[in-house]
Amino acid sequence: MYLDAQQVVHCQATDRDVGPCAVKHHFPSPIVSWIEDLSSFGNVSFTPDSEYVDEQARASVGQSSTSSNLHDMQISVRLTEEFVELAKENTSNNLETCGILGASFRDGTYFVTMLIIPKQEGTAHSCQAVNEEEIHAVLSEQSLYPAGWIHTHPSQTCFLSSIDLHTQYSYQVIFFR
Prior knowledge:
The protein is globular. Mean pLDDT is about 70; it is low at about 1-30 and about 45-65. Helix 1 (about 50-60) crosses helix 4 (about 160-175). The protein has helices at about 50-60, 75-90, 130-140, 160-175, and strands spanning about 1-5, 10-15, 30-35, 70-75, 100-105, 110-115, 120, 125-130, 145-150. It is built from four helices and nine strands; from the N terminus they run βββαβαββββαβα. The chain has one domain (about 1-40, about 75-160): Cytidine Deaminase, domain 2 (3-Layer(aba) Sandwich). It starts with a strand and ends with a helix. GO terms for molecular function: metallopeptidase activity.
C-alpha cells in the first residue's frame, strides 16, 4: 500500500482539555502532524532501567554503550492514543503504519510533543516513510528533534524487533546530544 499527497496538515492541542483537531483521511493520505502543548505534561517521569537499555543497545549493534548518555524522555498518553486512532484503518487492513516523534529538550529531559504520520509505504510486516525531507521540514519549523519512531505490528504482539532497535539507535546516535 502506498500513501501519498501534496499537503501537510498540522493539528495543535493548546489545552489539556481540548482534543486534537479532526483530521480527515483521504487516499492518497497527506503527511499529518499532531502537536501536544508542553504544558500538558505533568511531573510523571518514566525512566527505563539503564542496565537493560544499555544491554539491548550493545546486543543490537555490537558496540559498547554507557548510561551517561541517557536522558529522561516523556511521551504524552494522548499522543500515543492519537497514533493508535490514526493507524486504526491500516491496522484493521493488516498494514503497518509508522509515525515520527518530535521532541523538545529542556532541563535534561526530552519531551515528545509531536506526532507526524508521514507519507509511507506499508505491508503486513513493514512500513517505510517516503519523502523524508517533508518530515524534517515539519520538525525544523517547530524547532524539534526527531526523537524516534512509533509503528504498529498489526499481526503480532508489541515488541521491539532487531530492525526496530537498529532504527531507534540511528535516531539516538545522529540526533541526541
